[in-house]
Amino acid sequence: MEEPLTQERGKVILEILKYLNKHPESGDTLENIAMWWIPPERIRPLLNQVEGAVGYLVERGLIKEIPLPGGKRWYRVNLNKKKEAAQLLRSLSDDGWFAGPSI
Known about the structure:
This protein has about 100 residues and is mostly helical. The protein is about 50% helix and about 10% strand. The chain has four helices and three strands. Strands 1-3-2 form a three-stranded antiparallel beta sheet. Strand 2 and strand 3 form a beta hairpin. The termini are far apart.
């Protein structure tokens, strides 16, 4: 069962989408997404928060999950869903979950 989009998860999703908007060719593991894609001055989420946010985006097809040897997974933007990702980015920004300038 899908968990609801909470404000906390929305903040993490927003930062992930902003990063992918600026770097559409990027891809990484959950650990590196938590460490490198989310600016420490904004939030420093726990790995399980990033996992929930990434899962939310994967369920909607906005990012792709690619299995790697050893059980890890690689995540990257689904270029076929870039418009939908941009709409969610605007929606989260408009809800005031992001205090900085909009992209």
